[in-house]
Specification:
Number of strands: 7
CATH architecture of one domain: 3-Layer(aba) Sandwich
Oligomer: single chain
Mean pLDDT: 91
Largest sheet: 7 strands, mixed
Distance between the termini: 13 Å
Radius of gyration: 22 Å
Order of helices and strands: HEHEHHHHEHEHHEHEEHHHHH
Number of helices: 15
Strand order of the largest sheet: 3-2-1-4-5-7-6
Helix content: 25-40%
Length: 429
Amino acid sequence: MPQADKQSSYNFIDLFAGAGGLSEGFLQAGFRPVAHVEMNEYAAKTLETRSAYYFLKNTDNLALYKKYLSGKISRDEFMKQIPASVTKTVINETLSDESLPSVFKTIDGIMKIRGIEKIDVIVGGPPCQAYSLVGRAQSSHMEVPMKDDPRNYLYKLYARFLKKYQPRMFVFENVTGIESAQGGTIWKNLQKYLRRVGYKIECREQNAQTFGVLQNRRRIIIVGWFKNSGLTYPDFVEKKSGAVVNDLFTDLPELHPGESNNTYSKKKPSRYVIEAGIRTKDDVLTLQNCRPNIERDIKIYERAIELWNDGHKRLNYNDLPEELKTHKNRHSFTDRFKVVEGDEHCCHTILAHLSKDGHYFIHPDIRQHRSITVREAARIQSFPDSYYFEGPRTSQFVQIGNAVPPLMARGIAEGIFAQLYGEDADEQQ
């Protein structure tokens, strides 16, 4: 069997799927999705829209998708033309002991209808706020202390999926803080649970920038495989783009606070944007709209950009004139205004906090003196321009900030494919 055909015969289930960053990478690498399980309504709608995109792409009918993105038809009108078999692969459900039987039944039904006898890969990572270092720093201000957060134990549900479907390999993604959460107890128990259901596992820290993403984003990637299978943790291929972050913005229209413009500029897209698959000649630009800002914030943004342009200096909140200060806390978060590093090979980590305000993600062009748009955040995360995020802008920012960069996910998927294909080749000899 040719390698391309073999690769497209591998399937996967995505748990805690979010907006689908991991799924997108595996899809780009040729894997076929069986189901995406996601609790958030807006993220689930984003997954449905992306599933519709791939259906229309495979049936040579992307004109319908463009009509939707261009606002010529409503989402209801658009989705009515997509087969239910496509959208039903997205399971909008909160995973729990109570919901698991229903979710299993739905996935079993999908497998039966499509004639799928086995699952090759399970991917996903439980919501990471309960493990993150930032989350723990804010725990004292929460109604439910971080140590009592039920999300700490969602890995047990992940293990039950492994036990039921017995995929040949799995990918468990999470923040680096998971290793030290609750003094390391959660980390030890998580590994124990994953091993208990029959898998050998290995954990390594990976950085999105080594996969060609223009972002410094460190994550723990656990890979598991059946014991005595001969499989192992993939050696992911490092990719160096040579690009800088500003290359992501070249062909996007200039905006000022509160403006919106979904027409590409006349400037040519950078080579990086083309080679990374972020933009194609057929794309429709969406989500290029930015927050309004009061005059005080604009003045602070301009100061922050001037400092960055003057030898990469960062703005310290305490150095601002008194008339520009509004926060009483002058001791922590003094770097709350931060410019995206446009002239560097990678920028700081895109966070879901973008939904609160854009102060930590200021566009590097001083003429625009604003925070980045949803589309710009998506590009930094390496999402294609054809990827549409459903819901209000706050939800779109959360979806993007919580996602695995698709370019990183694709590199992981290619590594997983190499392992599976190598094992199958050995068995055929």
